[in-house]
Amino acid sequence: MNARFPNFVRQLLTGLRAVAVLTVVLGVAYPVAVWLIGFTMPYRAAGSLITENGQVVGSALIGQSFEGDQWFQPRPSAGDYDALASGGSNAGPNDADLIAAIQERRAAVAKANGVPESAVPPDAVTASASGLEPYISPEYAAIQVNRVATARDLPVADVQRLVAAHTEGRMLGFLGERRVNVVSLNQALGAD
Question: Are 23 and 107 found together in one domain?
Answer without folding.
Answer: no
